[in-house]
Amino acid sequence: MSTVQAGRNADEKRPLYFDYQATTPCDPRVLEVMIPWFTEKFGNPHSRNHTYGWEAEDAVETAREQVAAIIGADAKEIVFTSGATESNNLAIKGVARFNKDRKDHIITVNTEHKCVLDTCRHLEQEGFKVTYLPVQANGLIDLKQLEAAITDRTSIVSVMAANNEIGVIQPVAEIGAICRAKGVYFHTDCAQAVGKMALDVNAMNIDLMSISGHKIYGPKGIGALYVRRRPRVRLEASIHGGGQERGMRSGTLPTPLVVGIGEACRIAKAEMDDESARLIKLRDKMWTGLQKKLPEVYLNGDLEHRLPGNLNVSFAFVEGEGLMMGVKDIAVSSGSACTSASLEPSYVLRALGVDAEMAHTSLRLGLGRFTTEADVDFAVDHIADAVTRLRELSPLWEMHQEGIDIKSIQWAEH
Amino acid sequence: MAYSEKLLDHYDNPRNVGSFGKEEDGVGTGLVGAPACGDVMKLQIKVSPEGIIEDAKFKTFGCGSAIASSSLVTEWVKGKTLDEAATIKNTAIAQELALPPVKIHCSILAEDAVKAAIADYRSKSNGLHKKAAE
Question: Which of A50, A176, A313, B9 has CA 20 to 30 A from A102's CA?
Answer without folding.
Answer: A176
